[in-house]
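User: Can you write out an input/output pair for a complex, sequences first and structure second?

Assistant: Here is one pair. Inputs:
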Amino acid sequence: MSFQPVKFYQTGTFTVGNRLLPDGERSVQSTVRRHNSLNSGHRACQGCGEALGARYAIDAAMEVTGGQLIAANATGCLEVFSTPYPETSWQVPWIHSLFGNTAAVATGIAAALRVKGREDVRVVAQGGDGGTTDIGFGCLSGMFERNDDVLYICYDNGAYMNTGVQRSSATPPAARTATTAAVGSTPGNTFGQGKDLPAIAMAHGIPYVATATVSELRDLEAKVRRAMEFRGARYLHILVPCPLGWGHDSSLTIRMARLAHESGIFPVFEAENGEVTGVAKIRRQVPVEEYLKPQKRYAHLFSPRPNEDVIRRIQAQADRNIRRYRLLQDS
Amino acid sequence: MRKPFAITLDPGSSLANHTGSWRTLRPEYLDRLPPCNNACPAGENIQAWLFQAESGDYEAAWRSLVQNNPMPAVMGRVCYHPCEGACNRAQLDSSVGINSVEHFLGDEALRRGWKFDPPAAPTGRKVLVVGAGPSGLSAAYHLARLGHAVEIREAGPMAGGMMRFGIPKYRLPRDVLDAEVRRILDLGVKLTLNAKVDDVMVAKQEGGFDAVFLAVGAHIAKRAYIPANEAAKIMDAVSVLRGMEGADKPLLGRRVVVYGGGNTAIDVARTAKRLGAEEAMIVYRRTREKMPAHDFEVQDALEEGVLIKWLSTIKEAGEGAITVEKMELDAKGVPQPTGEFEKLEADSVVLALGQDVDLSLLDRVPGLEIADGVVKVGANMMTAHPGIFAGGDMVPAERTVTVAIGHGKKAARNIDAWLRGGTYDPGPKHELAAFDKLNAWYYSDAPKTVRPMLDLQKRITSFDEVVLSLDANTALFEARRCLSCGNCFECDNCYGVCPDNAVVKLGPGNRFRFNYDYCKGCGVCAAECPCGAIRMVPEEI
């Protein structure tokens, strides 16, 4: 793990800041000098996890690069809510690409910078799970395969949210979306093989792959920092709960991300050159029900009566993650 | 207007878009009342002084503490810490060792010679305090800080009241007590010893006092009728413990029986052990669960070899022996005699059955209300006679040092207001920061630090202090276990978790402010505030 939690300072490093820590050990988000790369006034929904995740990640990248950063942004929520022409919330050099080609656009920017001898300027590409795992997957795989010097950040909220919550290949099994209705004998999204993009990225053997959630800021910032220490293709996959699409109260955004980690649904880890080098252990393990219940996209699992069979399958998936990544404290 | 191809508008910032108009719920910062503060009989702002101690600023912590309680070193030893019983941390692992941090801060102040802040400008008013026990000393301290001239008259030869004549040295070393009393007197409080006030009206008149605070305590031991022959040696707990302060220690013999079940009975039994008694036995008519003595005191006594005879009453005392009758609890939990008797060897019997108040000094005060042997006071601690206030063991309340110190503070603030022709208004109490108001996930796991104890052999052979102090490291650790319930401790969570950057950080000590131009009212800040210092209120639409 690149980030070692500090204990015993009341909240240690679990909170965003801690007045008892020395300056150098404080998070970017706790400082007044943070860049606010994604500024106020954006049109994201109340409690948007993606807006939060994007600010966390890009602020951290701005801090590491001393502001020498260019961002390419796929079409999707993040682009729509931040930049309705001619307004923008971005306080970084930022370009909007097509839905599917942001990895290619970022590759082009990196190439241009190399030609100009400006390799001090770093490039990030970012998009949602639709633009990453579905539409932009070909461009992204090419970027990995060529090992282009880009950090690609995927904000995963598990569906196409801004067009009205349609299923993507990152939509979890049993979740209800506009295109996977909660009807029939197997309501909600099917249990497929899923598209585990962090694992696919690792299979490309690129220098750095990591997952993070908006509930663990210090871990997320450390991963951005680590990613910027490498040259070549890097991939960061951030789980960002969506109150609209998931159907949870807007105040629960961070709690949902935390429960996704604590239940084993979403493993938080990092890998270098295809090998797992660290995992964020589960602190207080919870059964998957605790994660599923507050979300209306899973309401059909609990009403009119609990769908024990499906819940068991979801739990089995979480348990598989726990085993595979050794997520428990003593494993 | 020359613009690039296909561009017709100037670029603008989203700051023009005031998303605050979307809001239906509005976050607000608030201070809730931490359960420890709520439980403290002396009204200490415990959360506040722990907050100071957390950053290692012990002097600031101590200064914050003595705003309410002038005797932290005494408190850290003798207070029964109801704060720890109320502490929310107990629901996570174990309560914060508030009492041990107070103990440390009190000792640190004595070690470093910290003095109280100088009193306010003299008001020209004179207040007489009768009794130099915890309540009287506390009142004198607060009155002096408010600028009043204070004189304490004490009937006994030394200040401290029951802290000196009731609490054994192994719990409260006398140099600690003396130093904390001295610090109060250094504020300019006049103390007259061996000056029993026989008639409070005369004393008030002759001394030209504007107000009087009575805190004479309860020093008359309650008796019980026990048939005894002439050779039986029956004493009372008050005299035994008082006798410990003189040159001639009480002669209790080899086998000592203590009759009663309160903390005083425990104190006497542990004292008897230290005086060399082979056997110190407490005879109590009910069971351990029903015993008024605190469990940890009972535990300490049992460790030291004190024996306890449960469900027993003394029927007769003779020479070298007593007869006890076995009792049993009836359905209501009241002990009833069984008719079964037993003879126990005993060189002396010490009665620890509670104390009464000597109210003779009030004989000529008109209009007083006295019930059950104590003086009635109003919510402002004033008796029915204007200008005469009372507190401590002589008014109806639990009889502990901390309660007495709380009375002294409350009385002082009311006396001050009364002297200025007003009434004291402490302001409305904040709502309680109950455990369900916290987001406990954020707090690190950290087990309680237990204070070191003197080894057992030394405990039963000397009057050395039993419970020792934490050191600076362990005290810091313990202070940092505080959850800061209901009060912002500047963890930056709200500032960090707002998806709309609508929280403004105002810098160390100044907390945060919401920028309602952009706050959409999602409620993430309130949900993720570890200590429950943000609430969501409906917006008026």
